[in-house]
Amino acid sequence: MRVAADDTTVDTLALKLWEYHQMRQPLAPADAILMLGSHDVRVAAHAATLWRDGWAPWLICSGGRGRLTADWPQPEADTFAAIAREMGVPPEAIIVENRSTNTGENIAYTRALLAERGLALRRVLVVQKPYMERRAYATIRQRWPEVEVTVTSPPIAYEDYPNDYISRERLIHLLVGDLQRIRLYPALGYQIPQPIPREVWAAYEELVRLGYTDHLVPESSGNEPPG
């Protein structure tokens, strides 16, 4: 149940989480760009732009269907690959992994697909939504420790992120849920630990108190959920 709070207060709290989730790492040349699937097609456009700018020779699209894309006509990776082709990335430079339903599976299935092709990567440039940069980084460091990873996202401000598909309300629920996962998942073996500043956790707790709980997972859960 939501507790009444003015929009300015809620946005101030949510912005603390938004800023924490973004790592703002400088770009570095890589062996491949790994585009992690999601509901946000702006990730695909950003990844295709990075490929066209010459940051890596391969563009990997990874993602099946998650809870926010269950009604899409095709898996996230296929949708993102189509956008990349429309933006000029040649099909022969694109690798599609379209079975995964969460970040851990993104990594596991991508690694298996690369092994089948005899491709060994040392440096990966990961593209994800702005509020999932840190979780993507922590997951890859845990599950693919031998690669050097740089994480980036489309350069979108918090106030500009909501659109016709994802509302401000949903965005805040997602910001809260992803921070909870950053705290919980290291103990479950899904991610490396990430320090959470006291003021960021205080903002999280206040948003939970205000009712932004739709994206939380049960704290006793041992299974990584889709998305």
| Strand residues, percent | 5-15%
Q: How many DSSP helices?
A: 7
The residue ranges in which pLDDT falls below 50 over 5 or more consecutive positions are none
Order of helices and strands: HEHEHEHEHEHH
Mean pLDDT across the residues is 93
Explain what the structure shows.
The chain is an alpha/beta fold. It has two domains: 66 residues, no CATH class; 129 residues, Rossmann fold (3-Layer(aba) Sandwich). It has seven helices and five strands; from the N terminus they run αβαβαβαβαβαα. The chain has a five-stranded parallel sheet with strand order 3-2-1-4-5, with helices on both faces. β4, α5 and β5 form a beta-alpha-beta unit. α2 packs across α3, α4 crosses α5 and α6 packs across α7.
Q: What is this structure, in a nutshell?
A:
The protein has 227 residues and is α/β, with parallel strands linked by helices. It has 7 helices and 5 strands; from the N terminus they run αβαβαβαβαβαα. Helix 1 (7-21) crosses helix 6 (168-188), helix 2 (42-52) packs across helix 3 and helix 4 (103-117) packs across helix 5 (133-143).
List the SSEs and their pairings.
Elements: H1 7-21, E1 32-36, H2 42-52, E2 58-62, H3 76-86, E3 94-97, H4 103-117, E4 123-127, H5 133-143, E5 148-152, H6 168-188, H7 198-209
Parallel strand pairs: 1-2, 1-4, 2-3, 4-5
Helix pairs in contact: 1-6, 1-7, 2-3, 4-5, 6-7
Label this structure with key terms.
single chain; 227 residues; alpha/beta; Rossmann fold; 2 domains; five-stranded parallel β-sheet; 7 helices
